Amino acid sequence: MAKLTKIMGLGAGLVLAGTVAFAQDAPTADTVVATVDGKDITIGQMIVVRDGLPQEYLQLDPQTLFNGILDQLIQQTALAKMGESRMTKRDRIALDVQRNAYLAGSMLEYTAQRATSDDAVQSEYKTRFETADPVTEYHAAHIIVATEEEAADLTKQIQDGADFTELAKEHSTDGAADNGGDLGWFGLDMMVQPFADAVAGMEPGDVVGPVQTEYGWHVVKLIETRVADAPAIEDVRAEIEADLQKTAVEDRIKSSVDDADVERMSDGIDPSVLTDQTLLAK
Question: Which residues 6+ apart lie within 8 Å of 119 measured at CB?
């Protein structure tokens, strides 16, 4: 189990040989599995350590993993007792920072989990898709070239009867050229401006150009439009849950700071002070 010890940051060669004695009663988080100079090591501590291990270690057989985690905690507890006798200012500050970071992360994880109840997801789905205004999708093609003059000339040729598809195959400089410039179906939010504005103002069969975007000069043909069907909730559940969690976490961070009595006293402090390691030795 030396690799497990190394992963946990203690260095190789510290694994203790020992046996595990199993309690007869059903274990709880408070069940003591070992003591080090009278300090208890519990099943709960072992579960927390296991939860933080890389996936590769979870592939070990249960007995090997159990013994390795217990050895790890025995080593840590013994070393921690020695470490307490030489605690430095840096150590005390680091422990305080780590405690705050853990508690903050735990609070945000709790917040994110509560934000994605099935009722919340269902409600957001209805707002987005069932009660929202219908969304129009567009089927269009384009020819994209480097100059305004070339786009204008191609537009005129098409208006005079030239075949759009053939001109796209011959002149367009993007990957859609092989398909005659066909872009397939899309929503306006998928397209850059002013391309999207141009399409929104067209009727099926219209050809418009030149239209400039960051990619070049376009000649645009609108083929047809349709009202998009609402997606099944399972197809968008992951997206909705991610959005709900993001909003909940952002709100939680803002409200926690707004509700706290925060007083900044950093004015006049030189930012370079953060590089002064001697302050932690005082």
Answer: none
Contact call for residues 5 and 72 (beta carbons, < 8 A): yes
Q: Which amino acid is at 204?
A: P
Q: Which CATH number fits domain 134-227: 1.10.287.620, 3.10.50.40, 3.40.1280.10, 1.20.1380.10?
A: 3.10.50.40
- The tens digit of pLDDT for each residue in 80-117 reads 999 998 899 999 999 999 999 999 999 999 999 999 99
Torsional class of 268: left (φ above 0), alpha (ψ -120 to 50), beta (otherwise): left
Closest CA to 78 of 38, 49, 21: 38
Task: Say whether 263 sits in a helix, a strand or coil.
Answer: coil
Structure tokens at 222: 């609108």
Q: Which residues pair with 40 in a beta bridge?
A: 35
Domain ranges of the chain: 2-84, 134-227
Q: Return the closest-CA partner of residue 213 out of 232, 230, 196, 229.
A: 196
Structure tokens at 196: 């999207």
DSSP reduced 3-state for 172: coil
From the list 21, 39, 22, 29, the residue with the least C-alpha distance to 77 is 39
